[in-house]
Amino acid sequence: xxxxxxxFPASPLGTVLLGTYPVTRSDAERETDDPVAAxxxxxxxxxxxxxxxxxxxxxxxGAARLAWRGAEALAGEGAERRGDQELAHLGTHSDxxxxxxxxxxxxxxxxxxxxxxxxxxxxxxxxxxxxxxxxAAPRLDAEESTWATIAVALATWHxxxxxxxxxxxxxxxxxxxxxxxxxxxDREIFPRTDPAIIAAVTHTDDDGVxxxxxxxSTRWPEGRFSTFAGFVEAGExxxxxxxxxxxxxxxxxxxxxxxxxxxPWPFPRSLMLGFRARATDLDAARPDGREISxxxxxxxxxxxxxxxxxxxxxxxxxxxAHHLIADWYGEPLPEPEEDRTF
Length: 342
Ligand SMILES: [Zn+2]
Fold this sequence. Notes:
By secondary structure, the protein is of the alpha+beta class.
């Protein structure tokens, strides 16, 4: 019997929040040409609804859980709809249940107001809220946040891929929801991921003092700083992308680049590849003035003091940037000493 769970090698970053649980992804096509229908015929099926990028979340015993549906959520759908339209067989839950994603668009988002109950076929479920992945993931357990990440990534790709990139013809969902088929050419089209690098730039001076360089984006509120990031360009290696982005955004040359871990970031379809990069020169740091308006070196003591005083806002725990900073810091990141939200 094949194992139902795989083992991941641990990342040096520890547990980043998205996509790190070793879920068993769908390989049902080995056994059936209609994995969605087979899953819906299983009484244990867990159906995850995704509507306009939001997922239903329920509070239970002080914890947040995905509000899974049973097959009855799809009752009344025509057989042809159930089999191949906007449904995907994501895989097998750790409890053995097949997991199906239902990502039917229900309503144009412009008709929705925040907090509105979802229109259409969702009956009143007063104990649930519809939440985006960024809001929900930190409150879900590792397995559920991973299913939610896969769901958002896959559904977003489908919604953006109604036409064949080669010939422009219409496409339809296939392979149990993991591909699309060009109706004119019979060409298979698979989900795309855009690689992006994100890097913690470090420096150790002649006295052995270690510092981390962070940047402030022109788009951010005062006090917010993070690591440096950017998309990998056509024909570019990861190492070259790290060196280029740090040079462009912070004026720094790096002579060593070390991979630390990755995180899917399906907004809409990035894979963040996290690095630590060693700067050759402390004094060269300067912002590009376009994307980055300030850069600043921090010792661990300075980072700790600034965060505790509320003057430095670091990225939230859902992002790999947070974990790259904590990886350098050496322990969980400090928090502000008083709640400064007002
Ligand atoms: Zn085509």
